[in-house]
Amino acid sequence: MSKFSGKLGLQQRVLPSYRVPFFDLLAGQCEGGMNLFAGMPRAVEMIASGKTEVAKLTEAKNIHLFGGMFYLCHQQGFINWLEETNPDALIVEANPRYLATPSAVKWMHARRRKVIGWGLGAKSPSPFGRRVGMRERFINQFDAMLSYSQRGAEEYAALGFPREKIFVAHNSVSPVPEFSMPARPSTFDLRPTLLFVGRLQTRKRIDSLLRACAELGTNPRLIIVGDGPERAVLEAFAKEVYPSAEFIGAKHGAELKPYFAQADLFVLPGTGGLAVQEAMSYGLPVIVAKGDGTQDDLVREKNGWQIPPEDYGALLATMKNALSDIARLRRMGEESFRIVSEEINIQKMADVFVTALNSITN
Questions:
Q1: What total number of domains does the chain contain?
Q2: Angle ∠(16,68,23) on CA atoms, nearest 5
Q3: What is the Cα gyration radius of the chain?
Q4: Full DSSP string of 162-194
Q5: Ramachandran area for residue 233 (φ above 0: left; ψ -120 to 50: alpha; else beta)
Q6: Across 203-209, average pLDDT
């Protein structure tokens, strides 16, 4: 396990509960400790906030401005926090919507200390107008970049950021599995079991999953774990389209284990969803909609399928294909388990963060 010899400061707009294990793990790899600066989400976001045990958390006062594509956030107290914690290096979210970031970067640089940006990437804007130059200036204020995915890294490089200063830390929320992969039979137990875990909201396209199960012809068992604003609507829709669908409600941590263990296939028909990695840690093949690039490195031909979002025909055809060969399905599940065990997990992610820190501070 690699170490960073200094004191790390890390900024986040909010601290979701699923990020806590990673931040505590990273803090344990900083010999000078780690201070975390994060605020509270808007009520409409319905993000469950967490609290760290190893990293020292200071709550920022988030001022949320506007909404939708015009959303901006100002975090009051950012500079005061820097003065109090005095970090040797700083990692910030590389999001130009966060208004206090440039001042924090200037504060660090005035003291000859380094700042790393961490983000999803930077899709190329229109070649016309000021946006190109503005985005380039924002990205190039950092001393190094941490990208969630290889696609994101290519987007940063396309803006002129030096490739040798870009590090890919695959977005992960799952540790290395401490258990053996669940043993699954060579045949389905009466019928295949499909699993969805996540927020019940429109963009997850659970309505499409219900329709597809009704059309498959194999009458699969469909387990839907989660809660959210669309639950009542989806339950009513299920009564009309696929009455046997099981709505379990919200489950967390160890409560999820029996559902992952009994499933044959994990399906995420819409965008977003961090449960994919947890499903893979239980040896499940996965079907996911293409999104921001974080799935590209995780879901491959040997362990699952990526389908175009909002394409019902592709979802149905892929589900039929997946369930047509159970031996292949089991092999793909084994590959999912290997990927999470060996390549993409929070320990690997923390190691890349430390490598990036050491590269700019040595």
A1: 2
A2: 15
A3: 22
A4: -GGGEEE------PPPSSPPPP--SS-SSS-EE
A5: alpha
A6: 93
Residue 355 in any domain: the answer is yes
Same domain, 200 and 327: yes
Q: In the structure, what pLDDT confidence band is assigned to residue 69 with cuts at 50, 70 and 90? A: confident
**Global pTM?**
0.88
CB 259 within 8 A of CB 193: no
Residues 197 and 332 in one domain: yes
pLDDT in tens, 220-235: 999 999 998 899 999 9
In what order do the strands lie in the sheet containing 89-93?
Answer: 56-59, 34-39, 8-14, 89-93, 114-119, 144-147, 166-168
Q: In the β-sheet with 246-249, what is the strand arrangement from edge to edge?
A: 246-249, 221-225, 193-197, 265-268, 286-289, 304-307
Q: Rounded to whole angstroms, how far apart are CA atoms 76 and 269?
A: 38
Rounded-to-integer distance, Cα 311 and Cα 180, Å: 35
In a domain, 324, yes or no: yes
Please determine, for residue 270, whether its predicted confidence score (pLDDT) is greater than 80: yes
Is the domain of 139 the same as that of 236? no
Residue showing tokens 């839907």: 224
Of residues 258, 262, 261, 256, the one with CA closest to residue 274: 256
Q: Taking a C-beta distance cutoff of 8 angstroms, is the pair 109, 115 a contact?
A: yes
The domain in which residue 197 lies consists of 193-342
Q: With 0-12 CB in 10 A as exposed, 13-18 as middle and 19+ as buried, what is 111?
A: exposed
Flag whether 2 is in a domain: no
The verdict on 104 and 142 lying in the same domain is yes
The Cα angle at residue 334 between residues 333 and 338, in degrees rounded to 5? 115
Rounded Cα distance between 88 and 225, Å, is 43
Distance of alpha carbon 292 from alpha carbon 271, whole angstroms: 9
